[in-house]
Backbone:
């Protein structure tokens, strides 16, 4: 069978620019593939890890086969606490949006819990965010508005307190 060809180290920056471009064009699978090529050469490349997490999360949000478990595993490889908290929220939020878009009656309480879990991650990130970076606040506000727009309610009983 065929095997992927290795990239040159000199081509990493250009490859990551392409990965970002593909993701912004709505082609997360292509971005995913490029990031894996970069990580095959530089396993701890933070830019590639973030781009791959983002591509997987985008696939979760589009229902195209992103793997939440893999994304969570990649988040643990991020070197910064802010990035770990923020991208944990992104993954959970995208999963919640996927459930909301394709869920059935009764999925509301579970989706509500997912959104509140994402919001908890964003609050954690907000406390340690770099000066001038309000990304965690923007994502938190989006979750609030999705909950309100869809009239989501918590499940009966005490919160589960689980972390997805």
Residues:
């Amino acid at each position: 069978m065929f095997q992927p060809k290795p990239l040159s180290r000199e081509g990493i920056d250009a490859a990551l620019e392409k990965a970002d471009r593909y993701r912004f064009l709505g082609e997360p699978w292509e971005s995913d593939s490029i990031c894996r090529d970069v990580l095959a050469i530089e396993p701890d490349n933070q830019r590639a890890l973030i781009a791959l997490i983002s591509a997987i999360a985008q696939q979760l949000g589009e229902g195209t086969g992103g793997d939440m478990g893999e994304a969570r595993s990649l988040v643990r490889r991020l070197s910064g606490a802010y990035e770990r908290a923020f991208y944990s929220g992104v993954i959970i939020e995208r999963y919640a949006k996927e459930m909301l878009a394709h869920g059935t009656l009764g999925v509301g309480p579970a989706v509500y819990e997912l959104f509140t879990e994402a919001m908890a991650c964003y609050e954690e990130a907000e406390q340690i965010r770099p000066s001038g970076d309000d990304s965690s606040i923007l994502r938190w506000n989006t979750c609030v508005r999705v909950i309100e727009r869809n009239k989501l309610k918590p499940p009966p009983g005490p919160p589960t307190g689980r972390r997805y």
Summary: Residues 81-102 form the longest helix (22 residues). The mean pLDDT is 91. Residues 108 and 152 are 6 Å apart (CA to CA).
